[in-house]
Amino acid sequence: MLFTSSWDDGYTLDLTVAALLRKNGLAGTFYVCPAPQHDRSMLTEKQILTLSESFEIGAHTLTHSKLSSLTAAEAQQEIAGSKAWVERVTEKPCTMFCYPKGDFGIGAKTIVRQAGFRGARTTEAWRCSFTDPYALPVSLQVMPFPLRKSFWPPWKVLDPLGPLRANWMALQRNRVPLSARMSWLTMARAFFQRSLEQKFPFFHLYGHSHEIERFGLWHELAEFLEEIRRSGVSSVTNGALAAGRA
Ligand SMILES: [Zn+2]
C-alpha cells in the first residue's frame, strides 16, 4: 500500500502541514488557488515556490468557483489559467488539478485532460483505489469527528453527531470498531490499519489547514502522521499515484 496526502486552497497555515510531513518523511500535494478563502492569509508566490522544492503543487482554479456553475468557456479559463499560474510561480510543469468543492459536473474532466493535466482529485471519501486518474478519490479527511464543531446553518445544532452519522455506513464497511469512533485519531488509526491489512492500493489523507487550525486538530494530525511513518509505508505524490508511476 502507498500513502499519499493532499491539502487544499493554499493557506499560509499549509506551511505547518508541510513541516509535519517533512518531519515524517511523507509526500504531499498542495492544491493552491490565488483567491483568498475564508478570510485566511494565503501563501505568497514566493512561499509556493519554496514549497514546490519539497512537495508537489497542483492547480485548484483561479477563483475557487464551482465548475458546474460556469459555462464551458469560463471553466476552461479557470482550469487552464490556474495551470499556467502554478507553472509560472513554481517554474515547473503542473500535472495535477483539484476540483473546487469536489464538483466536476458535466465535461470538467474532459477540459482538465485537454488542458494537459495528467490527473485530478475529487472529494469522494473512504476510497483506497481508483480507476480514473481524472477522478482520483480520497480515503479520509482531517475533520472534527465524531462531534460536529460548526453549527452553521443554525439548524445543525440539532445534529451534533452529524460527522458520525454521515460516515456510519463507511465506518461499518471498513470495520472500524465502535470503540475507535470516539475521536478522529482513533478512527483514522483503525481505518489506516484496516487498509494496511487489506493491502488496499493506497491511503489518501486530505484536509484544509484552516480547518485543522479552527477546530484544533493539529495534535491529532501530528500523531497520525507519526503513526504512518512508523508503519514504514511508502509515500508518493498525488501526481505519481495518478500517473501510475508509483
Ligand atoms: Zn478548495
Keywords:
246 residues; alpha/beta; TIM Barrel; two-stranded parallel ribbon; binds zinc ion
What's the tally of helices? 9
Say which CATH homologous superfamily is assigned: Glycoside hydrolase/deacetylase
The averaged pLDDT comes out at 95
Query: What bound compounds does this protein have?
Result: zinc ion
**End-to-end distance, in Å?**
10 Å
Shape: globular
- For the CA atoms, what is the radius of gyration? 17 Å
Percentage beta strand: 5-15%
What is the CATH T-level topology? TIM Barrel
Architecture, CATH level 2? Alpha-Beta Barrel
Number of domains: 1
Can you write the helix and strand succession as a string? EHEHEHEHEEHHEHHEH
Report the top-level CATH class: Alpha Beta
Count every beta strand, where a strand is a DSSP E run of 2 or more residues: 8
Parts with pLDDT < 50 across at least 5 consecutive residues: none
Secondary-structure content class: alpha/beta
